[in-house]
Amino acid sequence: MPPTENKTNLIVRQQLPALLRKEWIKLRAGIWILPLLLIYAAGESYINLQSMLRIYGTYGLWEVIVFKQPLFFDAYRIVVVCGIVIGFLQILPESRNKRLRVLFHTPLRPEILVSHMIITGLLLLILVSLVGYLLLIAVLNLFFFPQEIILPVLLTLLPWNLLGIAAYLLTLSFFFASNLPTKLLVLAVFFSLSSLLLPASFYGQFNPSLWHYASLTVSCLFVVFFTSLSFLHKPVHLPLFSLSRTATCVLAAVILSTTLPNLYWKTFLPPAPSQKMHFSPVLQEFVYSTSDRISGKEPGYFKEDNSSLTRKEFQSNLPFLYWRNLEKWGIFPTHIHGTGITPEQARSGWQYLWLSSDHVNSSPPMLHVLFETNPEDARLQKPGDFFRFNNSTERIEFLSPLNGNVNEKKSNLFTRALKESGFRFPVTALGGNPDARKEYDAGYFLIDSNGSLFRMQMIDSMPSVSNTGNHLNENVIGIVIREHHRKEFYGFIVSENSLYAIEQPHSTLKRLPLDTFRPEAFALAFWSDMLHTSLVIRPPGRELKPLHGMALNGDFTIKHEFTKAPDKQYEQAILQRASVASFLFPIQIEKNKTGSSFMNPVAVYAENIPAAMTSIILCLIIYLAFRISRRSPVLISDIIIVSIFGLPALATITVIDF
Q1: pLDDT in tens, 575-632
Q2: Which terminal residue of the chain, N or C, has fewer Cβ atoms less than 10 Å from its own Cβ?
Q3: Are strands 285-291 and 300-303 parallel, antiparallel or unpaired?
Q4: pLDDT digit string (tens) for 473-488?
């Protein structure tokens, strides 16, 4: 080994312990703040749970957590502050009085110095996060919550921990940045990540996309190296600098292509006209209304042939929906196509249900509630326990909120009833209605490993499990149960190819005639009364798709169909704004997939391809002109990034090369 290399290695070995002591000296000035922040977060979580316990009681506390999923632990967002504090303590002493220039002129290579700083800070931040998790687990155990509640709560904290790491890395990057435009870019990335990761509406909302945000967090490492190595006059000959620069460009372009389109559509999305469509049993066709939510003009009412109706004519053709007005006006029909009808029958003789993919494309319930089907009182009573299916032990378990223990006697009783009925574990899908305000309880509908549909109830405190005789050979996405006083349908089963209604009283299945059913993105209004059943399909999202109505016979065959085209004026306004969005953002990364409640980003290419291609070509021309005018080399990586992201990439490259 050459003497020079030996000398360098000796210097490195001598410097590393000194650097470690240096990091400790910098951190100890404010590290005491971190345990105080954690104690505050854990203490507020405990106080929130204790307050709910006093208000709702022991059972009510579990019920609120399971079905309402409040963010009682939202103080744990403080981990983001912890990341900023650690980064601030490490970098502020280095950045005073131009000390960064001195730092990067030590015998150690700059990437080693920066890596040492990052590793120290990340280890401390990870330790802080682990202690925070342990404190929260301790708080949850004080209220006897089972793992079915604890795990989703902890997973909800993960995006905040990722943001805390990103905040730490971007804090270093901000102070390393040598010019104002780069500092502003770092701030833009941080605030954009915050807008994506801080909000949460239910537990585990980010579960499918944690890998996506973890990769963005890791990319922040390259931002630190890029900004720090820029102090050496942007040494393009160093592979790490070139890699960091490219990664920074990609990260910023991705973030901007996520937040800016969202901001654009929030600002410029035109108000959609409100459209309502119903099947008229009087006219035997669909009628619809349209209204402008902004102008406040009187809604328009129409028949299928677009001929106008007055408001009174519109309502008189929908006697089940507007029976009260018709009775007041003295024009309620006594017969509709030979069938006698009274206002009382119209009042209680219809059922409406809005069903969408959001009902099934979301986190499943953590625990379930089984009511007594034959209660002693007139109304359903809450049972005082919750149940779960333990597929590993092939049993159902009932948990008491008083102590979190399993009621072995009741669990064994129901497990035995399930197995004796022919049920085969594991449970592949189940659905029930945990609302005690319903008039009666239909129990739970379960799909076993063989695809057979079972019904489970508790009657006089004893299990009642029956095989409905239905078998589904397709993957079941979810089961939605909505007991209704008409007792016509228990609910619906959503499979990968079909949508089935569960008929009362024998739990027979009827497939809805949806030829192009997509369980990942659907929305429909289901209407049933004593004269007819109808569907109005309303595709979710901003897509300009028509409303489609179907009136069904008793066997669910289609007897009448009608398609309502989108409003022309609204369609034109959307297309104009979509063209502008396509020009500004050739790739738009939406925060979640249409029809899903999860925060699962998806990249969508421009709706107007010519506008997007024009933008990309223009951006490439500007990039080439900019590089040539400054006599800078044209980088293949830049060409690729601009060709994909367009203006956001060009803006990023312009800023970091300023």
Answers
A1: 899 999 999 999 999 888 777 888 888 888 988 999 999 999 999 999 999 888 888 8
A2: N
A3: antiparallel
A4: 889 999 999 999 989 9
Reduced to 3 states (helix: H, G, I; strand: E, B; else coil), residue 335 is strand
Q: Give pLDDT tens digits for 305-352.
A: 999 999 999 999 999 999 999 999 999 999 998 899 999 989 888 999
In this structure, are residues 627 and 639 in contact, taking their beta carbons and an 8 Å threshold? no
pTM: 0.89
Q: Identify whether the C-beta of residue 302 lies closer than 8 Å to the C-beta of residue 308.
A: yes
Q: Which of 25, 239, 19, 222 is nearest to 107 (CA)?
A: 19
The residues near 337 (Cβ < 8 Å, ≥ 6 apart) are 281, 282, 284, 531
Other CB atoms within 10 Å distance of the CB of residue 612: 22
DSSP letters spanning 528-568? EESS-EEEEE---SS----EEEEEE-TTS-EEEEEEEPPPH
Look up tokens 């005639």; give the residue: 513
Nearest to 498 by CA among 528, 522, 532, 482: 522
Burial 427-452 (b: 16+ CB within 10 A, else e): bbbbbbbbeeebeebbbbbbbbeebb
From CA 184, how far away is CA 186, in angstroms rounded?
5
Kindly list the strands in the beta sheet with 489-495, ordered across the sheet, starting from the edge strand earlier in the chain.
476-481, 489-495, 499-503, 509-511
For the stretch 541-572, what's the b/e string if a residue is b when 16 or more beta carbons lie within 10 angstroms of its beta carbon?
A: eeebeebbbbbbeeebeeebebebebbeebee
| Amino acid of residue 346 | A
